[in-house]
């Protein structure tokens, strides 16, 4: 079965209960930013274009460095292997293993076939792997590590009844021929699993146009060029891993995959930034704090002198941490980024300035290209337009909005609506569950969640999901989960 058959069409989504006067007012107050971008091209097409124009470095990890030509050739060999084992248009291919060149080549191979990528993180337990593969309807699990497949991946795939294929077997395959199978900009491109309130994660599906739009948004707002080197730091289950793997490949730039042991050692990470000429890094604020603390204590700390941007995402960026960054690393700009997985990653960007430091809560910024943001408040069973400065819940429309949750119509209808405001490429409106307000300068300020979802070190968690899992144990009659803040973790 292809993934499209498990997803709802916009016509199957509920209508948003909002009266005409509020509809018009919300449309007037909406934050948006239109920009023409090529959202129908394939990333692999850019890779092969740079390869044909003269090879250059593309991706490196701890084991190897590859240029654009080698990366493209590897992607085509892997595509041939995947097709031989049943992957094709609209099928879901899981990729499991350590972050690295092999995973990026696998993503490009899946794109070539018109299939859908879903990561199975090497650090997950077998039960989580089985749950993700089963819900995703994966036709196979591609194990990318050169050695033995980890026990968790093997056991999880076995429990889900999904065959395991080793990427190393593609070494002798004849390259897959032909152009990338792009059937349209709304083609499902990847699926990532987020927290849910029933004890099971939700498989959020992102379209090709949403992914490409986000890549172009990063290129525009960061002023990225072929000279940039982006650090790939995020686990594969995080939405930010996608742009970190792919964005430089649209420009002829370079991706450096940072191993976990390097990323978890602040001094080693800073040395890596210097040694590899890294210009762009994205971390959760918890890790930014640890980086600054450790570098402040080191007498001969690396300076990260080539760094142009630090992006903070995944959790709220405290004003005092932003103040520290601007004072201690003044040569690197600080961007506060915000966005849900369901909307192709970030939907707002904000470059922090000294003028922001007088605020108790920093702005999360203005919309990225081709997105529309609406602030609405709930009252008397309906939704009303929130005026500037008035708190309300954030809704997202535009190209960035994804397709909903695979195989889960009920939870899709809880969060996605037919877009009543605009005729957009997706026809969908996403309810974020985040409370915000519009500041006088026309940017959004995050105020908190309207439900019981929390983020810990950038990981989205539903307290109800944890309670549901605890209550599965036969010795547990009831469970309640609360969060205590003990200050910055060390």
Written description of the protein model:
It is a single chain. The protein is an alpha/beta fold. It is 30% helix and 25% strand. Strands 1, 12, 13, 14, 15, 16, 17, 18, 19, 21, 22 and 23 form a twelve-stranded mixed β-sheet that branches. The longest helix is centred in the N-terminal third of the chain and has 17 residues, at 68-84. It starts with 19 loop residues before the first helix and ends in a 20-residue tail after the last helix. The mean pLDDT is 92.
In short:
It comes from Actinomadura litoris. With 490 residues, the protein is α/β, with parallel strands linked by helices.
Task: Report mean pLDDT, rounded to a whole number.
Answer: 92
β-strand number: 25
Straight-line distance between termini: 47 Å
How many whole angstroms does the radius of gyration measure? 22 Å
Count of individual domains = 2
**CATH structural class of the largest domain:** Alpha Beta
Q: Based on helices, strands and strand pairing, what is the structural class?
A: alpha/beta
Instruction: Enumerate how many helices there are, as a single number.
Output: 14
Strand coverage percent: 25-35%
Give the proportion of residues in helices. 25-40%
CATH superfamily descriptor of the largest domain: ANL, N-terminal domain
| Major sheet details | 12 strands, mixed
Low-confidence stretches: none
CATH architecture identity of the largest domain: 3-Layer(aba) Sandwich
Instruction: Find the CATH topology of the largest domain.
Output: Rossmann fold
- The dominant shape is globular
């Amino acid at each position: 079965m292809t993934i499209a058959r498990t997803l709802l069409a916009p016509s199957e989504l509920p209508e948003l209960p909002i009266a005409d006067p509020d509809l018009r007012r919300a449309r007037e107050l909406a934050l948006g930013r239109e920009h023409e971008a090529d959202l129908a091209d394939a990333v692999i097409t850019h890779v092969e274009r740079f390869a044909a124009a003269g090879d250059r470095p593309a991706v490196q990890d701890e084991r190897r460095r590859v240029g654009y030509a080698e990366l493209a050739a590897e992607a085509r060999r892997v595509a041939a292997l995947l097709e031989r084992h049943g992957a094709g248009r609209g099928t879901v291919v899981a990729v499991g293993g350590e972050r690295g060149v092999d995973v990026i080549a696998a993503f490009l191979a899946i794109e070539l076939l018109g299939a859908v990528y879903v990561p199975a993180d090497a650090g997950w337990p077998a039960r989580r792997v089985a749950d993700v593969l089963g819900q995703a309807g994966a036709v196979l699990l591609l194990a990318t590590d050169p050695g033995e497949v980890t026990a968790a991946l093997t056991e999880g795939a076995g429990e889900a009844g999904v065959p395991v294929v080793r990427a190393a077997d593609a070494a002798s395959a004849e390259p897959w021929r032909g152009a990338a199978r792009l059937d349209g900009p709304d083609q499902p491109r990847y699926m990532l699993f987020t927290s849910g309130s029933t004890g099971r994660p939700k498989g959020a599906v992102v379209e090709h146009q949403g992914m490409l739009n986000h890549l172009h948004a990063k290129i525009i707002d960061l002023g990225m060029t072929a000279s940039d080197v982006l650090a790939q730091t995020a686990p594969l289950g995080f939405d930010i891993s996608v742009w970190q793997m792919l964005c430089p490949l649209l420009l002829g730039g370079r991706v450096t995959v940072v191993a976990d042991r390097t990323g978890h050692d602040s001094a080693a990470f800073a040395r890596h930034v210097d040694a590899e000429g890294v210009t762009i890094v994205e971390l959760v604020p918890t890790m930014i704090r640890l980086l600054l603390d450790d570098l402040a204590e080191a007498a001969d700390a690396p300076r990260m002198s080539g760094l142009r941007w630090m992006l903070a995402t995944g959790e709220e960026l405290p004003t005092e941490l932003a103040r520290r960054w601007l004072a201690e690393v003044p040569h690197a700009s600080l961007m506060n980024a915000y966005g849900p997985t369901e909307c192709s990653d970030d939907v707002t960007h904000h470059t922090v300035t000294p003028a922001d430091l007088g605020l108790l809560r920093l702005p999360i910024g203005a919309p990225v290209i081709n997105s529309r943001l609406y602030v609405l408040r709930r009252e008397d069973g309906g939704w009303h337009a929130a005026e500037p400065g008035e708190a309300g819940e954030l809704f997202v429309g535009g190209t960035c909005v994804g397709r909903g949750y695979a195989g889960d119509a009920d939870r899709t209808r809880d969060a996605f609506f037919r877009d009543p405001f605009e005729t957009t490429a997706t026809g969908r409106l996403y309810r974020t569950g985040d409370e915000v307000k519009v500041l006088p300068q026309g940017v959004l300020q995050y105020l908190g969640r309207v439900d019981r979802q929390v983020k810990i070190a950038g990981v989205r968690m539903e307290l109800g999901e944890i309670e549901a899992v605890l209550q599965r144990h036969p010795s547990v009659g009831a469970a309640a989960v609360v969060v205590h803040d003990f200050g910055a973790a060390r």
